[in-house]
Amino acid sequence: MIKRSEVRKLQQRAADMYSRAGIVLTPAESENIEIAEFGLGHAHSEGLELVTYINTNIYCAKELALFPGQTCPEHRHPPVGGSAGKMETFRCRWGNVRLYVEGDPVSKPKAKVPEESRPYYTVFHEIELQPGMQYTIPSNTKHWFQAGPEGAVVSEFSSSSTDENDIFTNPNIERMPEITED
Amino acid sequence: MIKRSEVRKLQQRAADMYSRAGIVLTPAESENIEIAEFGLGHAHSEGLELVTYINTNIYCAKELALFPGQTCPEHRHPPVGGSAGKMETFRCRWGNVRLYVEGDPVSKPKAKVPEESRPYYTVFHEIELQPGMQYTIPSNTKHWFQAGPEGAVVSEFSSSSTDENDIFTNPNIERMPEITED
Fold this sequence. Notes:
2 copies of one chain form a homodimer.
Chain A lengths: L1 E2 H17 L6 H5 L2 E3 L11 E8 L3 E8 L4 E6 L11 E14 L23 E5 L4 E4 L5 E17 L7 E2 L10 E2 L2
Parallel strand pairs in A: 1-11
Antiparallel strand pairs in A: 2-3, 3-4, 4-9, 5-9, 5-10, 6-7, 6-8, 6-9
């Protein structure tokens, strides 16, 4: 549950970050930036600010913004219907992002696991993306990511997106949280 | 047929344009910008400078650069194997681009049809894209596009890309031209 006034503040902060990164949005896109706070009530720590450019039944493209140190919680995209589950390519456009996927864990992750949700971060194979660098995450693979100290803007190119099917490691997460009027 | 030295010059010019547009490429990506001159021998008039970020059997993402007034010739993406043919979303990032697709023609197109290839431009439904604006072209639909006076950088999000299957209106076009050493 998040208040409409808080959503507006986060949208404005994300719009400023997109602007600093040189990403041009239409006024309608800026006003409708999706605030994913995952129902956890601490969007500045665990959250994500998204613009979906296009999502067909084949391909999808989004722009993701993360505030400094903000984390998108661990999740995976399972098979849906007849298809393999969303596969996605993250390309860092601005700032930097630390991405964690299944595989050999690092002993000292550069990211700081959000204290409130520590048990729900379980994969620690680390990939650090600077602007111009990219990484492709296979279908149905657990992953989470956190912006560095400046924040990050990341282009996501993927197969079709069905956010409502995402499986989060943290059972308290609601991907589609309720917005309340003030 | 295009000389290696000419390819290098066009790559440098395109890299400068990507840089001005705030698009960060790795050194390897800059050195390998694809110069599509379509075998016509006048790349500054009809040509396209591309970076393919990812191309899987499901989705594809490219960054396209066009020099001022440069035109990507009319073509369509036909069905291939069992799939419907490439569907693509163009999002203007910088500069501006005039896109022409099948449909009601405009009487005075803003783009100037390349003189040498006039008979091979046959669709004139006009869409002008400024930064932040986008348009999705259905499968198997004829289209061509030309940059405005500053040039253009366009992100392309699409289903899987198989350039070798593209059908150009101009029968003289070779999508995969030969590069000769100087």
